[in-house]
Amino acid sequence: MTELQTGPVSVVVVTMNRRAMIEQSLPILLNDSATGEVIVVMDGAEDESLEFLVEWSKRDGRVKPIWQENAGAGAARDRGVASARYDVVVLLDDDVMPTQSLITQHALRHSCGDVDIVLGYMPTTVPSPRRRGQVATVLYSSDYEETCRGYEAQPETIWSHFWSGNFSVRRKQAVTIGIRGQMRLDYHEDLYFGVRCEEVGLRAVFDRSAAGQHAHSRNLRSLSREARRSGEARVILLRWFPHLANDLDPLLVQAGLPRKVIMFLSGEMMRTIMVPALMASSWSFGVLRVWPLETLTTRVMRQVELVYAFRKRMKTYVVPRLI
After folding, report:
1. Do the bridges between strand 96-98 and strand 88-93 make them parallel or antiparallel, or are there none, so unpaired?
2. What is the pLDDT of residues 65-99, one digit of tens each?
3. Cα–Cα nearest to 13, from 105, 76, 85
4. CA–CA dist 227, 113 (Å, integer)
5. Does the CA dihedral 143-144-145-151 come out positive or negative?
6. Using CA atoms, how far apart are residues 36 and 260, in angstroms rounded to an integer?
């Protein structure tokens, strides 16, 4: 039987140029009784985070700063896990503000001995009252809450919809599997990790009590870029894991638009016209505070960009060698 683990646990935070967020979250993490150490991996940070953390480590030996050349979040998480001392490792994004007992809740759930991975809850801070230009955060929050309801209704969807901003895992398993893994992805590294965990038979649970608040912030152009990155990464994942077509193929997972319509709008010529027009419409509806139409036009824009990138990559994709 798996040895019960009640703490202390290792905490790994990956950051890049978000010193202000680290300054806020670090005291909360250190005040949690289950925290054995806080490893902060700075992935090419250039905002004096290193100097700040080095000074803090002199006052509290549990703080362990690590600086590395920019190599991506997955590689930074692997670096942090490899440096961890304890059996259970909690991994947090630098824009997730922990509650006072987040680490304790992760440790308690692992102490039951019946899970390998605990996926914590990280609701998005939605601005109130709503203002123009915040629609990306509204959409993100809505999508995330829908995903969480899916976790609870069908726990097996944790793997194919894995969000890595707040989760814990047994250190030995994380080292063996690797957070980043052998395939380089510009997006959806967390989903790739989840699929590999499922393949080796790990057990996961979603736990709302292990909570942190996600400080999400994106503008329309950032949302557009993320949609294209998502489309490209989905092609790579789909070729490696064809059984996930219903989760990865955006032409099978529709967001309110008929397949023929989205195919037409995401064509090479139409997309160059439609995306700027949809962005302008979204902004105008935001100025007028017509929130339903701001949300609708932004959803359509995101879907057009996602399908455009997906279709374009499908035409040229060659299965890469594992690194």
Report:
1. unpaired
2. 999 988 888 999 999 999 999 999 999 999 999 99
3. 76
4. 38
5. positive
6. 54
Q: Tokens at residue 114, please?
A: 């019946």
Relative to beta strand 204-214, strand 117-121 is parallel
Identify whether the C-beta of residue 275 lies closer than 8 Å to the C-beta of residue 224: yes
Q: Which two tokens stand for residue 87?
A: 């059996």
Write out the two tokens for 156: 């097996």
Q: Give the CA distances from residue 167 to residues 120, 158, 188, 293, 298, in Å, rounded to whole numbers and listed in that order.
A: 5, 11, 15, 35, 29
Query: Angle 93-94-97 (CA atoms, 0-180°, nearest 5)?
Result: 90
Tell me the helix, strand and coil percentages in the chain, rounded to 5. Answer: 50, 15, 30
Helix, strand, or coil (residue 107): helix
Nearest partner of 190 among 74, 24, 35, judged by Cα: 74
| SS3 (DSSP) at 99 | coil
| Domain annotation for the chain: domains and CATH numbers | 9-214 (3.90.550.10), 220-316 (no CATH)
Tokens of 154: 């069908």
DSSP calls for 227-256? HHHHHHHHHHHHHH-GGGHHHH-TTTS-SS
Check: pTM over 0.85? Answer yes or no: yes
Determine the distance from the C-alpha atom of residue 43 to the mean position of all C-alpha atoms in its chain, rounded to a whole number. Answer: 16
What would the pLDDT profile of 108-141 be if each residue is shown by its tens digit? 999 988 899 999 999 998 878 888 889 999 999 9
Which one-letter amino acid corresponds to residue 272? Answer: T
- Rounded to the nearest angstrom, the gap between the alpha carbon of residue 175 and the centroid of all alpha carbons in its chain is 19
What confidence tens digit (pLDDT) does each residue in 249-303 have? Answer: 988 765 556 788 888 999 999 999 999 999 999 999 999 999 999 999 999 999 9
DSSP state of 86: S
